[in-house]
TrEMBL record:
Biological function: Plays a role in the control of regulated secretion in neural and endocrine cells, enhancing selectively low-frequency neurotransmission. Positively regulates vesicle fusion by maintaining the readily releasable pool of secretory vesicles.
Sequence segments annotated as region (Disordered): 22-121
Compositional bias annotation for Basic and acidic residues: 32-49, 78-87
Any one biological process term the GO annotation gives: chemical synaptic transmission
Keywords: Cell projection, Cytoplasmic vesicle, Glycoprotein, Membrane, Neurotransmitter transport, Phosphoprotein, Synapse, Transmembrane, Transmembrane helix, Transport
The protein's name: Synaptic vesicle glycoprotein 2A
GO molecular function: transmembrane transporter activity
GO cellular component, one term: neuron projection
């Protein structure tokens, strides 16, 4: 027995050495074909010897299981040699990185170190690109079918509902972010002395940030994981939202809101992709539509908090005149709570198992799917049910890592890794969405996303602006005009509002502790007058003369005096910065916050209808039908000549159009494979934000001029989007690619 064992070991080692030598010598002439010949030769040598010696040395069969290495070598005696280790060659060793689909640095796969071996490996790798891509596609198709079967076994239950609320918080944070700047702008513009261009930039900056964030985090989610990318993006949003509530200058506040937008931009593309990979085919459309409700909840939360906090100016403090923390900053701080809650909850949730399986990590994906199964079965009262899946198909991996070597400086290693990751994202994800296989789908979706976003965001911002314009017209219609009045030795210590004084003469009058709102003095003379503790809003003096007058602790700055003459007049201790407008704040808050609250709440019926019908009538019918009805509803805008009429039309448009957004989110998730899903969704969502900026800018320019142009633009865009939507493939009833 001892001699037979030694002969067997020597024969195995000799066969390996012969096979390697033949392979090395012949590879120079015949290339890849030798691999098959030598592999066959090695197999025959093994099988012949094992057949001859089978009676004396039985071969241990492998066990069924989901683990890749089921060798029993670990059970042998300490220090002993088993059949699996005797005659072992280092070149055949499987190490941890290769187990995950990553080649060893010394294996020659993808080596960048140079030399004949790396040249041959590079040529071989170049030849195998087409074969590897075909194998990957085949693996992805097989995985998609098996994954759907596994999700059916796992069922829909406690795990999916828990993840639903966790990801809902992240989507809620996105909804809050859209409304934050719009709500704080009326107060922030006075607190920071913002000009009209600065106000416009502050209103649009969040869209620019979200555009960059959607593109960036969507692409990274397909490379480093959905959960990790979402955690990083939400952390960036929460940090800079916190900072923006304390910074004082306009530039720093603008910068913080930009980075806050970059962070939250990853929410929508990652959340929908992440959640879809835990949903079986018959539940996917419905539950993705239910998830959209959290965006509405975010808008309601922002409106309610703004209404409850911003008008309360007592919730503020200041440190001298340099640092002021008013109530609108408290509101900005409170708006970061959903994002912080999402980060805390998401930390306890697992990565998408589909992402692991697509990246060759079988065991990690299996463990998560088992967790989903066991959680649901325990919640349904069937803890005895066992997860029957033992092996899951994984996708063939490409060699993508760069060997930086051990002598390379740390900073250079990170630079090379970042460059390599950027190249992989660019070539394998972003450009791959424009491959011939997906080109038509991508361009069609780009057109639909752009047209819907252009019309929706343009109109939703145009509605409040039109309401403000109607309010302004009504306010100006109540303006009181005084001409050629003469006032002497009078003390004004009450509020002056919405008045125009022309050609007046004021002698030895006192204006004490006075609030002026929308006051205009034209061609008037102020002689020996005293102004103390004046707070003004929209107040101007045009072509007036001030003789021997004193201004003490007022906010009447130079820009309020237009073509005026100051003769022997003095300004002492002028107020610094801009003062908040304390007058008529309740009415302003009512119109700004309550209107947005109603507009957001109005999408609830549309959300419910789309969730119930998404899997019954299909994604395309829902998308095209809702877009057509929204297009028709645009023409009713011509009849909105009052505040109540415009509010009703805003609610109508929002309630109808939300169904098309839900259908578009679902169909975008289902039209791309898992390794490109987040990238494609992020790219389309970035295009959506660009269209939003264009729509808002164009529609706002026509406020107070004409209604016809915005209505025609919106209706035309929706009509084009609904037509193009019918050309997309229907995804109802299909497995997730």
């Amino acid at each position: 027995m001892e001699d037979g064992y030694q002969n067997r070991t020597a024969f195995i080692k000799g066969a390996k050495d012969i096979a390697k030598e033949v392979k090395r010598q012949a590879s120079k002439k015949v290339g890849r074909s030798v691999d098959r010949v030598t592999d066959e030769y090695s197999k025959r040598s093994y099988s012949r010897f094992e057949e001859d010696d089978d009676d004396d040395y039985p071969v241990q069969g492998s066990q069924d299981g989901y683990y890749r290495e089921d060798s029993q070598a670990a059970n042998d005696d300490e220090g002993g040699h088993s059949d699996s280790t005797e005659g072992h060659d280092e070149d055949d060793e499987i190490y941890e990185g290769e187990y995950q689909g990553i080649p060893r640095a010394d294996s020659g796969k993808g080596s960048l170190a140079g030399g004949p071996g790396s040249v041959r490996a590079g040529a071989q790798q170049f030849k195998d690109v087409g074969v590897s891509e075909a194998e990957r596609r085949k693996d992805q198709e097989e995985l998609a079918q098996q994954y759907e079967t596994i999700l059916q076994e796992c069922g829909h239950g406690k795990f999916q509902w828990t993840l639903y609320f966790v990801l809902g918080l992240a989507l809620m944070a996105d909804g809050v972010e859209i409304f934050v700047v719009g709500f704080v702008l009326p107060s922030a513009e006075k607190d920071m002395c913002l000009s009209e261009p600065n106000k416009s930039m502050l209103g649009l900056i969040v869209y620019f940030g979200m555009m960059v964030g959607a593109f960036l985090w969507g692409a990274l989610a397909d490379r480093i994981g959905r959960r990790q990318s979402l955690l990083i993006s939400l952390s960036i949003n929460s940090v800079f939202s916190f900072f923006s509530s304390f910074v004082q200058g306009y530039s720093t506040f603008l910068f913080c809101r930009l980075l806050s937008g970059v962070g939250i931009g990853g929410s929508i593309p990652i959340v929908f992709s992440y959640y879809s990979e835990f949903l079986a085919q018959e539940k996917r459309g419905e539950h993705l539509s239910w998830l959209c409700m959290f965006w509405m909840i975010g808008g309601i939360y922002a409106s309610a908090m703004a209404w409850a906090i911003i008008p309360h100016y007592g919730w503020s403090f200041q440190m001298g005149s340099a640092y002021q923390f008013h109530s609108w900053r408290v509101f900005v701080l409170v708006c970061a709570f959903p994002c912080v809650a999402a980060i805390s909850a998401l930390s306890a949730m697992p990565e998408s198992p589909r992402f692991y399986l697509e990246n060759g990590k079988h065991d990690e994906g299996w463990m998560i799917l088992k967790q989903v199964h066991d959680t649901n079965m325990r919640a349904k009262g069937h803890p005895e049910k066992v997860f029957s899946v033992t092996t899951i198909k994984t996708v063939k991996q490409m060699d993508e890592l760069v060997d930086t070597g051990t002598d390379t400086p740390v900073w250079q290693r990170y630079r090379l890794k970042i460059m390599s990751l950027s190249q992989q994202v660019s070539e394998n994800n972003i450009l791959a969405t424009f491959n011939p296989e997906y080109k038509r789908t991508t361009f069609m979706l780009m057109a639909v996303w752009f047209t819907m976003s252009f019309s929706y965001y343009g109109l939703t911002v145009w509605f409040p602006d039109m309401i403000k314009y109607i309010q302004k017209q009504e306010y100006e219609s109540r303006t009181k005009t005084f001409t050629k009045e003469r006032v002497e030795h009078v003390t004004f210590n009450f509020t002056l509002e919405n008045q125009v004084h022309r050609q007046g003469h004021y002698f030895n009058d006192k204006f004490l502790n006075l609030k002026m709102k929308s006051m205009v003095f034209e061609d008037s003379t102020f002689e020996e007058c005293y102004f103390e503790d004046i707070t003004s809003t929209h107040t101007l003096f045009r072509n007036c003369t001030f003789i021997a007058s004193l201004f003490y602790n007022t906010d009447l700055f130079k820009y309020r005096f237009v073509d005026c003459k100051l003769v022997n007049s003095t300004f002492l201790h002028n107020k610094e910065g801009c003062m908040l407008d304390f007058s008529d704040d309740f009415n302003n808050a009512y119109m700004i916050y309550f209107v947005n609250f109603l507009g957001t709440l109005a999408v609830l019926p549309g959300n419910i209808v789309s969730a119930l019908l998404m899997d019954k009538i299909g994604r395309l019918r829902m998308l095209a039908g809702s877009s057509v009805i929204s297009c028709v509803s645009c023409f009713f805008l011509m009849f909105g000549n009052s505040e109540s009429g415009m509010i009703a039309l805003l609610c109508l448009f929002g309630g109808i159009s939300i169904a098309s957004w839900n259908a578009l989110d679902v169909i975008t998730v289902e039209l791309y494979p898992s390794d490109k899903r987040c990238t494609a969704f992020g790219f389309l969502n970035a295009l959506c934000k660009l269209a939003a900026v264009l729509g808002i800018s164009i529609f706002q320019s026509f406020v107070g001029i004409t209604k016809a142009v915005p209505i025609i633009f919106a209706a035309g865009a929706l009509a084009a989007g609904s037509f193009l939507a019918t050309k997309l493939p229907e995804t109802r009833g299909q497995v997730l690619q």
